[in-house]
Design goal:
- By secondary structure, the protein is an alpha/beta fold.
- It is built from eleven helices and nine strands.
- Helix 7 links the parallel strand 6 and strand 7.
- Helix 5 packs across helix 6.
- The chain starts with 16 loop residues before the first strand and ends with a helix.
- The relative contact order is 0.17.
């Protein structure tokens, strides 16, 4: 059996994610078209592009949540279903029913169900892992609070903590900074940087172009097709961004997205 982890049989680092010739269509309308993308291990990558560019669809295709019309995705050299224990997912906050009656700690411990299975109940070890994750996102004092009582930024940090307890190799995040306050954004950036420094791969759908060079070291620029991908210093250029966004780039100079 081949190695499931980040290294190939020869010990060389294997790509964390490989997207090959990927096309996804909704009602015969292409959302992603012939995408080739390689994500190296240990990078903190932003996926950027205009509304409708296919950013969220790309994340869902990697996770097998949408069926491609063509192409395939590999996670450390194998199909996602064989590697799902290596991947953690933080969806958009708006996709969740936050009125569900459960506590912050219980939500975070749900991140351990993949390792436990649905028969075993979380025990002391899972509780300790969850509390450690809440400490990383500065929410320990809210562990017993109902999730419906949290602010939007606090809810986003709960989602991040739930992903952290999975001990994944790859973290996929769909707009983790959307609708959060400055304190939460700083906390999330610190956690993502710690994950990267620990050798994890982090991929985030991201909208605020002005913070890409500050927060990320790798980028993929999409608009249905892949415009460019690679180190931020090489691909995050005005020419590439104009190919994706057209002429509407004043926010790169003014510091506010328009």
């Amino acid at each position: 059996m081949r190695d499931r982890g980040p290294n190939g049989g020869d010990g060389e680092p294997r790509a964390a994610i490989e997207v090959n010739d990927l096309t996804v269509a909704y009602r015969d309308q292409p959302v992603l078209w012939d995408i080739d993308l390689t994500v190296p291990p240990g990078v903190l990558m932003a996926i950027v592009g205009p509304n409708g560019a296919g950013k969220t669809t790309l994340i869902k295709a990697i996770l097998g949540l949408v069926k491609p019309a063509a192409g395939h995705v590999l996670v450390f050299g194998r199909p996602y279903l064989e590697q799902r224990s290596l991947v953690a997912y933080v969806p958009q906050r708006g996709s969740v029913d936050w009125d569900f009656p459960t506590s912050v700690l219980d939500v975070v411990m749900m991140g351990r169900y993949g390792a436990l299975g649905w028969i075993r109940r979380p025990g002391r070890e899972e509780r300790e892992r969850a509390l450690n994750a809440l400490d990383m996102v500065d929410l320990t004092d809210l562990a017993d609070r109902q999730i419906s009582q949290l602010s939007g930024g606090q809810q986003q940090r709960v989602f991040l903590a739930r992903a952290l307890v999975q001990d994944a190799s790859i973290y996929l995040m769909d707009e983790p900074f959307q609708g959060v306050d400055a304190k939460t954004e700083r906390a999330i950036v610190e956690v993502l940087t710690r994950l990267k420094d620990g050798g994890h791969t982090v991929v985030c759908v991201h909208h605020a172009l002005q913070t890409v060079p500050e927060y990320f070291d790798w980028a993929a620029i999409l608009n249905v097709r892949r415009i460019a991908s690679g180190p931020v210093g090489e691909v995050f250029t005005e020419d590439n961004l104009r190919l994706a966004y057209g002429g509407r780039l004043p926010f790169l100079r003014s510091g506010t997205e328009g």
